[in-house]
């Protein structure tokens, strides 16, 4: 069986991780014979717009519908429940060429449905095995990836802007991921985004406790794509930002 | 079960009315590569879609102890076959008729569940299936690559028959595919509605362990089907033994 490579992108809110995730998906989708699953684990569901896909249902909507059906005793058998969830999950999968898209949605409401959560995680992992690459747009709370999406990722990419807060959150993510083992990962690296002055890089490198994979300059085009809700799949190949993303991907692949 | 015998007759009557339809008898080895468990077919890669959630869909298994009622290893196709349907999303009906032996009150439910799971053992490159047993819905997709390599209902039917025949309690299998129109799928849903009731009654008995018939939605079908009554007596007996 072919191996699926998983990339999770995390960072403080507002540092541009959704745009970076979308550009990573764009770069991978150029391999026409590969299938990419993009997972939006950020409750804001910004990745759907960034990839130009429609979200019909989130994983959490499916979970909530199932809870209602369990409470009304419409669903009893575990195996049937698993296959029904798998059916619903495929129905919820947004699609754009060789890209599949799944939105996790808001964190669960109160109530203990641990078994159901573990079913859902199992189905997401099974679905992910059908793809060559899985790219997850995470949130600052890295443990959510482990709890709600999947146990193991190959590459954990932490994004920060040049602010002290952004760097602190990035370092905290590494600490929680590595020392607290919040998520199993094979390698970790950082991206500095919206760098307005190249000379800052040397100083920022010393503050960031993560190997720097690359840095992206302040880019008005990214801002425009965000502002006008344009799909990043259409982002120009020749742009500096996209070229950095391609270089980073080549680096982590080797 | 008598009720199922009648349904098999009704299904064959339905087919009779749909003449001429494609009928083939399958034999020999199945030559189609495995999907190696990677079976997702995305829109962009899809050649044919069957039973999309927005369309009529039916997937049903009907069994009989009378082998002569089953046209062994026959695959019928009412409506366009896959090679004639590029780019189409079609309503879909799939009925598997099975000649069985040794079914009794103790094993019928487990064997039915076992047969229900067979569709997930079908691992054919470029063929994706998703299903909700509860609603007898089946949604499948055939990739462009599989289409161009000649994937057809004969191949799918053969794979299904081969998988069913691996069970020692199954002696013959017949598969019927319907893609002609929503009305035909709806007609088959009506013909097989009692199968659904029997399954739901068994599900309720086994999974919910509510053996009190007062107010049960399936009382009517249990009263009518002798085998369900016997199954219930056994379950009541077992529950008393546990107490």
- The termini of chain B sit apart by 31 Å
Proportion of beta-strand residues of chain B: 15-25%
> Level of helix content of chain B?
25-40%
Number of DSSP helices of chain B? 8
Pick out the low-confidence regions of chain B: none
Structural description of this entry:
The complex is a heterodimer of chains A (254) and B (243). Chain A is built from 10 helices and 8 strands. An 8-stranded mixed β-sheet of chain A has the order 3-4-2-5-1-6-7-8, with helices on both faces. In chain A, strand 7 (184-195), helix 8 and strand 8 (212-217) form a beta-alpha-beta unit. Chain A has helices at 17-29, 46-51, 59-71, 78-92, 114-128, 143-149, 164-178, 200-207, 220-227, 240-253; strands at 5-11, 36-40, 94-96, 99-103, 133-137, 152-160, 184-195, 212-217. Chain A has 254 residues and is an alpha/beta fold. In chain A, helix 1 packs across helix 10 (240-253), helix 3 packs antiparallel against helix 4 (78-92) and helix 4 (78-92) packs across helix 5. By secondary structure, chain B is an alpha/beta fold. In chain B, the strands form 2 sheets. Chain B has a 5-stranded mixed β-sheet with strand order 1-4-9-6-3, with helices on both faces. A 4-stranded mixed β-sheet of chain B has the order 5-2-8-7. Chain B is globular, with a radius of gyration of 19 Å. The mean pLDDT of chain B is 90.
